[in-house]
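Ticket #4471: structure export looks truncated?
Reporter: QA, pipeline team
Priority: medium

Steps to reproduce: submit the single chain below to the structure queue and open the exported record.
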Amino acid sequence: KKNQSSASASSSSSESADMITAPCAPEPIEIDISNLSAEDLQSLKQDDPFLYYSIPAVRRAVFNLEEPDMSELSLEEST
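Actual output as written to the record:
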């Protein structure tokens, strides 16, 4: 009887081990960059390049093989 109970316990634990869960995607975060200066944007480029290159105007400029104009970025995003 001990073998049967341990066998059923091990089979139930193996069933839970086979269950796979997928992580949920986090909610996207939007950051208002309209009040950032050119110096702030340059600092953002150094501190958080992923966030910097996720700015649409920066992404467009890089895609077009152009250098983003920092002074126009903060103006463009606020309009």
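Status: closed, not a bug. The export was complete when the record was re-opened. Leaving a note from the reviewer for reference: The chain has five helices and no strands.
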